[in-house]
Amino acid sequence: MRLTNLLGGTALAMTAAAAAGAISAQELPACEGCADSMTIVSWGGAYSNSQAKAYHEPYQELTGIEIVNDESSAEAVAKLRAMDEAGNVTWDLVDVVASDAMRLCDEGLAMEIDADADLAAAPDGTTASEDFGDLLVSECFIPQIVYSTTFGYRTDVAEWGGKTPDDICDVFDLEAFPGKRSLEKRPINNMEWALLCDGVAKEDVYDVLETDEGQAQALAKLATIKDSVVWWSAGAETPQLLADGEVVMGSTYNGRLFALIEEQKQPVAMLWDAQVFDLDGWIIPAGLPDDRKARVMHYLNFATDTQRLADQAAYISYGPARKSSAPLVGKHAELGIEMAPHMPTDPENSKNTFLYNYEWWADYRDDMDAKFQSWLLN
Amino acid sequence: MADATAGDGIAPEENRSASGLLLSADGTPLKNSIARAERRARIRAFLLILPLLAFVMVSFIAPIADMLFRSVENDIVADTLPRTVVELQDWDPASGVPGEPVFEAFYADMLDATEAKIHTRLGSRLNYEESGMSSLFRKTNARRLGRIDDTQPLAPQFEKIDEDWATVEPWAILKTFSARYTPGYFLQAADMKLTPEGVESVDETQQIYIKLFWRTIILSLTITCSCLLLGYPVAWLLANLPMKSANILMILVLLPFWTSLLVRTSAWKVLLQEQGVINDILVWIGLVNDGARLVLINNQIGTVIAMTHILLPFMILPLYSVMKTIPPSYLRAAKSMGANDWVAFWRVYFPQSIPGIGAGAILVFILAIGYYITPELVGGTSGTFISNRIAFHISTSLNWGLAAALGSLLLILVMGLYWLYDKIVGIDNVKLG
Fold this sequence. Notes:
The complex is a heterodimer.
Chain A: H1 5-12, E1 37-41, H2 45-63, E2 66-70, H3 76-86, E3 93-97, H4 98-106, H5 115-118, H6 128-132, E4 142-154, E5 181-184, H7 190-196, H8 205-209, H9 212-223, E6 229-232, H10 237-244, E7 249-253, H11 254-263, E8 268-270, E9 275-283, H12 290-303, H13 306-312, E10 319-320, E11 353-355, H14 358-377
Parallel strand pairs in A: 1-2, 1-3, 5-6, 5-7, 9-11
Antiparallel strand pairs in A: 3-9, 4-7, 4-8, 4-9, 4-10
Helix pairs in contact in A: 2-13, 7-9
Chain B: H1 2-6, H2 30-69, H3 75-80, H4 82-88, H5 100-116, H6 119-127, H7 133-139, H8 142-146, H9 154-161, H10 169-176, H11 184-189, E1 192-195, E2 198-201, H12 209-240, H13 243-254, H14 261-272, H15 277-284, H16 300-323, H17 328-336, H18 341-369, H19 373-378, H20 386-395, H21 400-424
Helix pairs in contact in B: 4-5, 6-7, 12-13, 12-16, 12-18, 14-16, 16-18, 17-18, 20-21
């Protein structure tokens, strides 16, 4: 998966105004035999808000249908499985991260998509599959945004003597940067960062991590800071811990840090080094009745087109998943600041990025998790 | 009974049948009509509880039984690969990679499975046992199977799809987990695993569940004890203050009950964290050095403090209702006969309050042992419970079989402790009021 393809496009011109692409009712094809309401599942908070502003509200204005929002994405995989077993899937469209989409696809709980047939082409005629490119990581997955997991740090730590961390390995350097750190309470990303800072080359990380010695090495590196780590399980925890001064640096999703820095004006800055790209997007539950399926496909065709994906970036600092959307990204809708420098895909921010290996984690997730949790206990 | 009453002369002569049985007014034997009336009463009583019984069965017992059943259920392998499972029965992992008949059966099974798109589901299931099975099955997809020429030997062609098919491991895993019922999940829940060679204990770096069970019990006992220590004096006050002040105190006890659990837990976060209110005050009055603030959260201390607070009403209320029934005159009587305060309390009052302690302790302990959200939020890594792992396997790893096995063990554990309690204290000795 080469997410780097995105960077060129995003870098070019993120200055064009986003307002240009309002669509009129005539351009939107009518929806024949479609249900007149749909249930969309997402993450809630600022993220759901950005989707409502960019996708739901314009679509409702054009079609007059009812959209029911459900904020269950965090438990989407388990709930979908339970619904499927009960034979009563009440959701029409579900927002999940790429790894969950792969799992849902594996479990037969998500519908397969034919990108070119089901999704809109770019304005210049580029097919959807080419426009999304490598980001179509699963047959069931329609990517919306590129986000990253990265570090934020407080800019007012007296003990640091004016230095600021600019390297991922500063997270592991308790001498130069004393204080508590917050890391996610699961192995994903932490293991990779540990190996990177223990002298493993970026391209070898997963080969090393596949061996018992490599896993021991990663855990040993993490053990060097274990006593100074606060482990988080919800994305909102790190921003709160940073704001309270409970930790001096911590990992979380870049959009959360953006809100902390730009909206709440906290003395925090982004580290960006070795940020890990990940994708978030839609899946359609398998086995929907025809009228609901028709409605979802109609909505998706609208909501994942080039302009709509670019519109979303005006409300949250996540990069649009289509290459053709990048030049259309403009200013933040309320703060009025340019969004480009806050995108994880901005060249200044993505000098050193790490690509998360979905396939590898799908295989090793259970095993690694058992080891990681056992390590946490000891 | 008829024989016993037949000759005692209580009933008038005309109400006896020829055989000497007592008869009721309509001429049927009295025994029968009593039985009928009793049966009617029983049916009526049963009908009265029927709605509740049906509700409990449908919404509580059946789902729990279904969930617990998953801890041994393992239909997926035999259902997805029926022919392969039969062929593998005679295969011995020690003899190397299975022969061509197994591959033929597997090829036929996988053609069906990929068409029904259930092969990846099997891969996810087997990945719980061996890392790599997930991608192995995902790789062996309809497109790649379509390229296989079934007139040629299949083994080398499967090796081309993924070289793992030419090794013993995936076949050994398939054989080990081909039975419709497996002890595998329960073994995992006890830090062991089922391997082709038999039951083994898992590597030390992966042992987690036994430790968590112990921690859950010990922390729950600690929470129960601290609830008792804090709750007993409060309950005593409640029972002995004049009505007016007791009511105010009662509202204070109940107030946290009416506040959302999440709000209370988050409030503890604000209070306990290193830059939090308690540490700030301690630093301000000089008890604690600014550089060495107390770590009160994200560890066991945090869990014990927050859960004690949350479960305290469950201790106070049963204690209160029992203490309310202990006449204050008993204490006065004890003192008038020369007991000092301590003896009067310990020999007279305390024994009478034991049923309340028993009820409160059982309530708090059983609630604590299954608690999930508070340990997750304030427990960090050292203060989490087994229920947090159960939740993880239900909602994140989707390993419902293991979650069910852990849940069953927890249920057995609670019932075992209940039995122990009955033996030591006696369950008759528990009173809610």
